[in-house]
Amino acid sequence: MRERLWNRNYIKVMMANFSLFFAFYVLTPLLPLYLSEHFGATKDVIGLVLSGYTITALLCRPFSGYIVDSFSRKTVLMVCFGTFAIFFAGYLAASTLLLFTIVRTLHGGPFGALTVSNSTVAIDVLPSSRRTEGIGYYGLSNNLAMAIAPTVGIFIYKFTASFELLFWLALLVACLGWLVDATVTLPSKEIVRNKTKLSMDRFFLVRGWLLGLNMVAFGFSFGVLSNYLAIYGKEVMGITGGTGTYFMLCSVGLILSRLQGGKALREGRLTFNAGSGMVISLVGYTLFILMPTLEQLSIVNYQLSIALGYYGSALLIGLGNGHMWPAFQNMTINVARNNQRGTANSTILISWDIGMGLGILVGGVISEILGYGAAFWTVVLVNAAGVACFFLATRVFFLQRNLNPTVH
To answer: What is the DSSP string of 300-345?
Structure first.
């Protein structure tokens, strides 16, 4: 008999994961507006304030993987989740731009540690025979939150114009996630104290370095898209208020990816899922920038440019990321030893963060010098380089280091 995938603890961990990402992303698209209206911050100051969160999360994640692998995972999870939730109250209390900057920057620490610990706990509660498939569904929970939460946040702000309400909502959702995780029962695991000298491999999975490097390219692409989508749509395509719809269509693509790619994950066809996902995403990014260019050249009409270039790309990018992300997470875990699951999870998240950070930075610089169109063409080039790297090198790299022969 096949082991049961949807056990009680796995469902709880997925719900908690959705909660933590929902709490984070419900604020993300509106924080620049909050800083501008509430504190009068300029564009460069806004970028500086918001980048602190990513930097802190990036710095904490390597140590998070080591801590999760070396101490009680349930204890680490509860401390990280509780701290993450409390920081939302700090946004309500921050009365000056300096205080808000401090709270926002420090908040990245528990977020980075929490994403590592929660995903590692999800692996622990999955039956070994269903782990590949289970990780795929687990990744869908945070992808859906990333797609749905901005839509909800924009909708609430549109009708209430209240940032305070959004901060309270984020705090409440995070607390609910903490309560759900508190009821999770983990299998007993002996804590092995590593007496050997600490090495780089305890903080970053050296065996999976090329997988991480490949993921940087895809994080770069999404970093540019998520941060400059609204202003590009307004200034180049003449779309106002379409950001929420775009992210909602991304979520539809993510759901479709589970229906389409679930069988491949169950069969352990990770390289197939990763390859097909990244190609689909590349088509989506290319359509996003190509259709407005063709419209400006009078090759296609405006309606077709909007339908395919803007909203059509959302479906494709969501579909592609839904295939690619769980496949890469599984591949990274499968090149790691059992006592390095936390390190493997932190490695893939670190790589994504580096890519996102570079995308925000480089995209902003290129946009300032050459315009947003050039920034999104850079996305296409970087994404294409990532696809080429996978088929020419990363796929073979993974197969040579795979510790699970049933996964290919």
So the answer is: S-HHHIIIIIIIIHHHHHHHHHHHHHHHHHHHHHHTS-GGGHHHHH
